[in-house]
Design goal:
CATH architecture of one domain: Orthogonal Bundle
Shape: extended
Radius of gyration: 54 Å
Number of strands: 0
CATH class of one domain: Mainly Alpha
Largest sheet: none
Strand content: under 5%
Length: 633
């Protein structure tokens, strides 16, 4: 049982149970440790069922009984068939606890079982400690600041609550390039100028959020690149560098096309109408900065330049009489308003004229298009009518000599038919090898397509295998590091041969025990066979003797007495055999009772009874305290 207990303790440690180093047997488990081990196992087997169970016993006895009943019900829910109740946890019994723990360890998921076989290195222990701390903080309910207890002030105080604010980080990337000088400069910058990651954010609180954001963005970019390469990159049959450069060149071409299309002027500006600028031009103009109106070079037609020239001349002629110092300020403002109103009227008149001209041009364009369509339709109709007239003219010319023409036409038809038949036979001669060649080429093409698809699928499978192998190599490398750390932490005075020798001794002992059990079973079978044969022989001998003696007993009185003695002897022998069998049964029952007594002594019955009495007294005391509180209330 020592090896079984060590295996159970190792598995319980892997699921998070805090088992002391001095505990090396299930016999040393107390109620607190049993409850914690069972709850940890149930949480791994069924998280929804185990999340509501506490990992420790409460101080009150009534609460302890409720926890024990809930644990017993949870074990029955996950499939435990043995007898279980609150007494299993509060008043522990070594065989029952061992059976229950063996059941729970066997019910653990395979991943947990595999994880239990792996050594626990420093990184794994640190990760588990972090996870346990986070779970403990998440299990504490949130309370307002006014309702917080001193116990919750540390984990729920305002100093530990911060908003998730991420800032861009500049990480040190080691890139391999052809220019060693540039690489040296980058390394010098990263070594002497680039600040550490923890010093780059403006606030120390934003370090964790910034690192998480940076890691998430890099991970998502890598996943998107893998998806795009597996879906489109492999089909292009290019290397990743060529595919990336081609994608970058396409993006540059699209940007150039968008810039060219956005930089072209709108066609409405040719008629002096309002010019519509794109958002891209406005954005470029905003980057250029404000430009004076006199320095902007606009492209226009001869009509716009004429209008601008006349408009500037009229403005110059109107604005030639400069006011003198003697004129009043009111006259100047009046003239300016009159000039402004006249210019507005002229501008409105010009706009109306432009709109009228534009509408007339559009109308003339539409009518011109309609006329052109009608002209095309009439030309098509005329050509069809001309063809019909030519056919009718030829038919009329042939009417005077109808018989001769019919004979000639029939001869032409027969010659055409023969020629068609000849051409068909020649085409068949050429058609058969062409069809065969077409089929052969088509089959070759299909085979090549099949081979290419197979190679593509093989390439994809190879990529998947490479990725899986890489992940497996990383996992094994981490496992190797953990094994190395575990080996370093183990005592060096114990050699591997000692463990191997111990395992071999255990195996040899098991084999010997198995051989002895097999020998005992074979001896028992032989004895049973011998007993059965002797019993049969005795029955047959008695039957023969009884028959012979019974025949002579009818004639001789002395033989009759011997027959009675024979019957009495047979009965006494049967009673003796039955007594021997009863004695063996009683001895077996005695051994069973002795084993039960030893088991009961191992179950700590007396200690459990004392604990039950103490718990009973504690419950009575709690009931008296509650009754006193009720009376006072």
């Amino acid at each position: 049982m020592e090896e079984v207990d060590k295996i159970l303790i190792h598995a319980l440690k892997q699921v998070g149970t805090e088992v002391g180093e001095e505990v090396d047997s299930v016999k040393q488990f107390n109620s607190e440790l049993i409850v914690e081990a069972v709850v940890r196992c149930i949480r791994v087997i069924d998280p929804g069922l185990g999340s509501t169970l506490p990992t420790s016993l409460p101080p009150g006895m009534s609460a302890r009984f409720r926890v024990g009943m809930s644990l017993a019900q949870a074990c029955q829910d996950i499939g435990y068939k043995g007898e279980i109740g609150y007494q299993t946890f509060l008043y522990s019994n070594e065989p029952e606890i061992r059976t229950l723990l063996m059941f729970l360890v066997e019910k653990l998921p395979r991943e947990s079982a595999e994880a239990s076989d792996q050594p626990s290195g420093k990184s794994v222990v640190l990760q588990r400690a972090i996870a346990a701390t986070i779970k403990a903080q998440l299990s504490v309910p949130w309370l307002p600041p006014n309702c917080q207890l001193p116990l919750h002030s540390e984990s729920q105080g305002p100093t530990t609550l911060h908003s998730f604010h991420a800032q861009p980080l500049h990480l040190a990337h080691c890139s391999k390039g052809a220019e060693t000088k540039l690489l040296k400069e980058v390394m010098e910058y990263q070594r002497h100028i680039l600040r550490p990651v923890t010093a780059q954010p403006s606030h120390h609180v934003s370090v964790a959020a910034s690192i998480l954001e940076q890691h998430t963005s890099e991970l998502s970019a890598a996943q998107e690149w893998d998806m795009e390469w597996n879906s489109q990159g492999l089909l292009s049959r290019l290397t990743p560098q060529e595919y990336h450069s081609r994608k970058l060149s396409r993006l540059h071409k699209r940007i150039e096309e968008q810039l060219r299309s956005a930089a072209q002027p709108c066609p409405e500006s040719a008629f002096g109408g309002p010019r519509s600028t794109s958002d891209l031009l406005e954005l470029l103009q905003a980057f250029r900065g404000p430009t004076p109106a006199d320095h902007i070079l606009t492209k226009g037609t001869h009509f716009t330049h004429t209008q601008k020239f006349t408009f500037t001349q009229e403005v110059e002629t109107i604005s030639t009489p400069l006011p003198t110092g003697r004129q009043l300020e009111g006259d100047i403002q009046l003239r300016q308003q009159e000039e402004l109103s006249s210019l507005q009227k002229q501008f409105q008149q010009l706009c109306n004229d432009i709109n009228d001209i534009t509408a007339e041009i559009k109308h003339r364009t539409v009518t011109n298009a309609q006329v052109l369509d009608e002209l095309k339709q009439r030309q098509v109709g005329n050509s069809e009518k001309e063809e019909k007239v030519q056919v009718k003219k030829k038919a009329i010319d042939l009417l005077p000599e109808a018989d001769n023409n019919l004979e000639k036409l029939q001869a032409l038809v027969e010659a055409s038919a023969k020629r068609v038949v000849n051409l068909a036979s020649q085409w068949e001669k050429h058609r058969a090898p062409l069809i065969e060649e077409h089929r052969r080429l088509k089959e070759i093409c299909s085979n090549k397509d099949l081979e290419s698809s197979q190679k593509l699928s093989e390439i994809k499978s190879l990529h998947d295998k490479i990725r899986v192998s890489t992940e497996e190599a990383k996992r094994k490398e981490e496992m190797y590091k953990q094994l190395v750390t575990e080996l370093e932490s183990l005592p060096q005075d114990v050699s591997r041969s000692a463990y191997t020798q111990r395992i071999l001794e255990i195996v040899s002992n098991i084999k010997k025990q198995k051989e002895e059990i097999t020998k005992i079973l074979s001896d028992t079978k032989e004895l049973q066979k011998e007993i059965n044969s002797l019993t049969g022989k005795l029955d047959r001998t008695f039957a023969v003797t009884d028959e012979l003696v019974f025949k002579d007993a009818k004639k001789d009185e002395s033989v009759r007495k011997s027959y009675k003695y024979l019957a009495a002897l047979h009965e006494n022998c049967n009673q003796l055999i039955q007594t021997i069998e009863d004695t063996g049964t009683i001895l077996r029952e005695i051994r069973d009772l002795e084993e039960q007594i030893e088991a009961e002594n191992g179950n700590k019955t007396v200690a459990n009874l004392e604990r039950i009495l103490d718990d009973y007294k504690a419950i009575r005391q709690e009931n008296s305290v509650l009754a006193a509180k009720v009376r006072e209330g």
